[in-house]
Amino acid sequence: MISEEMGKRLHDMATRGKILSSEDRELLQTWYEAQDDAEFRLLNPGTETETTLRKQITSVLTGIGNINNEIRKTIDDNNILRAEIRSLQQQLAQKMTADAV
User: Fold this and answer.
1) What are the residue ranges of helices labelled H in 1-46?
2) 79 CB-near residues (< 8 Å, 6+ apart)
3) Disulfide: which of 8, 13, 55, 93 matches 18 by Cβ 3.0-4.6 Å?
């Protein structure tokens, strides 16, 4: 397998009209084929890949929904606690007023 860097270097040399050895031409051809294959897979995803991506998206959306539910529950719990704190503060203020008299 030819590295991406070497493939780009050979491609650059070939497009600039430099003469490549037969070995370098074979490596470049292998790199071109790998690039074509990668492009084809990107533009024509198989059903398996599409199915996998759809499952991953569904999983992520489910996770987001669960986190959203947890946030809403935390907000509700915080509102309940704030109301209890206000009530306790009022009771304390009333007791302090009654004790001061």
Assistant:
1) 4-15, 22-43
2) none
3) 13
The Cα–Cα gap between 26 and 22 comes to 6
Axis-axis angle for helices 22-43, 4-15 (nearest 10): 110
Tokens of 19: 């003469």
pLDDT in tens, 2-20: 899 999 999 999 999 999 9
Give the domain ranges of the chain. 4-100
pTM for this predicted structure: 0.47
Residue type for position 38: A
